Automatic annotation (TrEMBL):
Region (Disordered) residue spans: 1-20, 84-156
Comp. bias regions, Acidic residues: 96-108
Source organism per UniProt: Rotaria socialis
Protein name according to UniProt: Uncharacterized protein
Bias-annotated ranges (Basic residues): 1-11
Length: 339
């Protein structure tokens, strides 16, 4: 396979003596759909081709013609001059001709599809872009303007203390017809999003409940009734040689478990071992399983925990504390060996 040679582009070198032409920062545009004039920054423009400019993307894409460019003050001065000229031209137009032009524009707008860009006269475009003063008998409370002359209804957004709101109850039939299918798709996406959020929240709550049992062990340990059953009978003693493990004193279930491990195992075994079962990927061996079964039996009988619920109690309350106890014993042994 023959590849074409890579095209190399030399970087442009800028020097203080070389004149550089920077693009203007501001543009005075006249939109082709309604003839509106506006001063726009260069960063807001999508593309520029000769004297035509594209603003926005997708459905909101609009085309405009460049009337002037340069600094903001220059574009604003030309904008004021052009608006004054438009005002003078509009004053010279007879009122009958204005009404006929607006009627023709409104009728053509009703016949065309809503996706098409409506074409209106410069006078009507100026009225759309400029603030309007409407009588109370022609405007409803939600900002819907009713024109009794043409029998048409249009919507305008009113700014009330910086908030704009439209009443959704006054949607036209054409809007309902065109937005019916996208609303179904959006509802499906919304339901799927809700299900995903619900599943993630459930997982986080389960994780939080497990960590809560470890972080707040005092309140959980004192409430051991959830692991007990009234009808179960327990042995009176748990012997290890000549020692009754049930007579070991401890301020709570954790202290009793630590004292029991100190009786069952030597300090060297506690500092050099881990909790059962044995794990192949760890270098330290596990504690003797037979003596650890006596540890389980002593804790269960001492605090009257049911055999069916002991595994849950051990995994949630006791296991993490005993693992920390072995780590502390390892630190104490290392500190003692240094001294």
């Amino acid at each position: 396979m023959n590849r074409s040679p890579r095209r190399k582009t030399q970087p442009k070198k800028f020097t203080p003596t070389r004149a550089t032409t920077c693009p203007p920062e501001n543009y005075l545009l006249r939109f082709k759909d309604n003839g509106e004039l506006i001063v726009v920054k260069r960063s807001s423009l999508r593309s520029i081709f000769e004297d035509t400019v594209t603003v926005g993307t997708g459905v909101k894409r609009r085309f405009a013609t460049i009337e002037a460019k340069g600094s903001y003050s220059q574009c604003n001065t030309i904008y004021e001059q052009m608006t004054c000229e438009d005002d003078n031209n509009d004053d010279n137009i007879p009122t009958d001709q204005e009404d006929t032009n607006e009627l023709e524009d409104y009728s053509s707008n009703d016949e065309c599809n809503q996706n098409e860009i409506p074409r209106v006269s410069p006078k009507a475009a100026k009225r759309k872009s400029s603030p309007l003063t409407i009588d109370d008998n022609e405007e409803d409370f939600d900002g819907t303007v009713l024109s009794s002359q043409h029998g048409l209804s249009t919507k305008k957004k009113r700014r009330v203390l910086g908030n704009s709101s439209l009443n959704e109850d006054h949607i036209s039939e054409n809007e309902i017809h065109t937005t019916a299918q996208p609303s179904e798709l959006s509802s499906r996406v919304l339901y799927q999003k809700i299900d995903d959020i619900h599943a993630s929240v459930i997982k986080k709550l389960e994780r939080f409940s497990k960590s809560l049992d470890r972080v707040i062990p005092t309140s959980v340990a004192q409430n051991l009734d959830m692991y007990r059953e009234k009808e179960e009978v327990f042995a009176p003693t748990v012997m290890h040689g000549l020692i009754d493990l049930l007579k070991t004193r401890g301020r709570d279930i954790y202290d009793f478990a630590r004292q029991t491990l100190k009786i069952l195992y030597t300090p060297e075994e506690l500092s050099g071992s881990i909790l059962p079962p044995t794990r192949i990927h760890l270098s330290r061996p596990a504690l003797d399983i037979q003596r650890f079964d006596k540890f389980h039996e002593a804790v269960r009988v001492k605090y009257r925990i049911a055999a069916a619920h002991y595994d849950d109690c051990y995994s949630k309350l006791i296991k993490h504390r005993m693992s920390d106890f072995l780590i502390d014993e390892r630190k104490r042994q290392a500190k003692a060996s240094k001294t």
